[in-house]
Amino acid sequence: MHTSLDGFVSGANGEMNWIKVDEELFDFVGTMTDNADTALYGRVTYDMMQGYWPTAGDQPNASKHDKEHSAWYKSVSKVVLSRTIGAEGLENTTVIKDDLATNINAIKNQEGKNILIFGSPAASQSLLNEGLIDEFWLFVNPIILGQGRPLFENITGATTLKLLESKTFGSGVIALHYAKAL
Description:
Elements: E1 2-4, E2 8-10, H1 23-34, E3 36-42, H2 43-50, H3 53-56, H4 64-75, E4 77-81, E5 93-96, H5 100-108, E6 114-117, H6 121-129, E7 135-141, E8 149-150, E9 161-168, E10 174-180
Parallel strand pairs: 1-7, 3-4, 3-6, 4-5
Antiparallel strand pairs: 2-8, 7-10, 9-10
């Protein structure tokens, strides 16, 4: 999840144009998607992703990243946390409306690779409150927004983390990889 230095995932009006992305960061995230076979989204992020990624790699001006991520997106199993959309007509997509812990744990217990959640701050907060997030990748961008949507909001309890690694990118973004401390 991208965040500002002061802990916001979007500006006061939902702006995300401050997020720094470049080929170095795209390549790094590509190593993460190579190790994942399930993508988890909240409804808003899923709608955004579904509106772009299925055809992004097919465009004449598609970048290397667009082609690679589009192919991954089309092949990966998608899970959407939503009480408002139905699963009918959705390809390779499961919708979870309730009983979050049971449904997510069933997916986590299946054979396969990692589950990645992209963006989706409300979904992330729900998963965190249920103790369902094992690791965090936070991409701290070199900007102070002063206001916006907080990264962690409505969290019901403390979660102690252990820093596994960090990486600094040429753009000034710092990736922080944490796991839940046991």
